[in-house]
Amino acid sequence: MQASHDTRCGDGSGGVHSSRGVIPHARELTDATPRKALMKTLLAIITSLTVLATGYLSLSLLILRPPHANYYEWIPMATLFLVQGVLTLVAVARGVFGRWIRSGLAAGGIAILCVGSSCAYATLSSTHFEGYAVVLGSVLAVQGALTIPTFWRHA
C-alpha cells in the first residue's frame, strides 16, 4: 500500500497537497459548491425565459407588423439577447474552459444588465406603459446580474 504524503497548500487555496493532487478544503466543498450550483441553476432558468421571451416578441413583430415598431432598434437588441442567452446556456450546461469565453460572457452580462435596467426604467418613467418592456427589461437585468459573478470571478 502506497503512503500518501499530505501537506498544507501555501497557495491560499485552502486545500491540501497530496500525492494524488490538491484535495479541496472541507469548507470549500460544503459552502461554495451548492452556492455555485444554485447560481448556475437560477441563471439557466432566467436565461431560458429571456430567450423564449425574445423569440416570442421577435416572431410577433414579424407576423403582426405593428405600424410604429422600431425594427432598427429591436433587431440588434434581440440579436444581443439571443446570442448572449444561447452562449450562456451552453456554458452553464457544458462548462466553460477558455478565459476569452468567460470574459465575453461576463461582458455580455454587463451589456444586458445595462440594457435591461435602462429599458425597464425608461418604460416605468414614460407616459406610455409597455408591460412586456418592463418584464423583459427586469428579467434581462436579473440575467445580467447573475451572469457577471458566475463567469467574472473565473476569468
Number of strands: 3
Globally, the shape reads elongated
Mean pLDDT: 83
**Spans with pLDDT under 50 lasting ≥5 residues?**
24-31
Alpha-carbon distance between the two ends:
40 Å
Biggest sheet: strand arrangement: 1-2-3
Task: Decide which structural class fits the backbone.
Answer: mainly alpha
> Main sheet?
3 strands, antiparallel
% residues in beta strands: 5-15%
Q: How many helical stretches?
A: 4
Instruction: Classify the helix fraction into a percent range.
Output: over 70%
SSE ordering: EEEHHHH
Query: What is Rg?
Result: 21 Å
Q: How many structural domains does the protein architecture include?
A: 1
Descriptive notes:
With 155 residues, the protein is mainly alpha-helical. It has one domain. It is 72% helix and 5% strand. It has 4 helices and 3 strands; from the N terminus they run E-E-E-H-H-H-H. Strands 1-2-3 form a 3-stranded antiparallel sheet, with no helix packed on it. Strand 1 (7-8) and strand 2 (16-18) form a beta hairpin. It starts with 6 loop residues before the first strand and ends with a helix. Mean pLDDT is 83; it is low at 24-31.
Topology, element by element:
Elements: E1 7-8, E2 16-18, E3 21-23, H1 26-64, H2 71-94, H3 99-125, H4 131-152
Antiparallel strand pairs: 1-2, 2-3
